[in-house]
Amino acid sequence: MGYTDDITLILPKECCYCNSALGTESYELKASWLEHGGRIRKTLIISVPICKTCLSEYKTKNKRLSLVGYLLLASVIGIPIILFTSLEGNCIWPIVAGIFIFGLYYLYDDRFIQPILPVRVIPGGTLLFRNNAYDKEYRNLNFLPPREGND
Ligand SMILES: [Zn+2]
Questions:
Q1: Residues within 5 Å of ion ligand 1 by Cβ?
Q2: Which structural domain, as residue segments, surrounds residue 45?
Q3: Ligand 1 centroid, distance to 56 Cα (angstroms)
Q4: 144: how many CB neighbours lie within 10 A of its CB?
């Protein structure tokens, strides 16, 4: 476990995805975020327990979504290339299209990839588990206040 300032986290032994089977496998979470107005970068690498069924289910879902994401990206990436070649000299359009693609990528990630992740880190460095019951148990074990809207 590696918070940069070495906070030890206690994790429930159950699978963090279904919270019913024992978490015999592990899912590695790597995350980093900025603190103190962007001056300090904190990194966390942690292994969370997950059961075999959930791990393979998650991997399949993730692979499928990533593939669709790449295909979408590849199809829209043609736009700035076409604009750039047809509107030669006018370099604002490729930039606009670039921003649009960037936004699209974030939207896709936020709407489709993020919700299937077993766990993620929210600003401030708190872990947020996909499974509400597991999340609640994790919060109890680490004396964290209950998550808003998760009772
Ligand atoms: Zn499971």
A1: 15, 17-18, 21, 51, 54
A2: 25-141
A3: 10
A4: 14
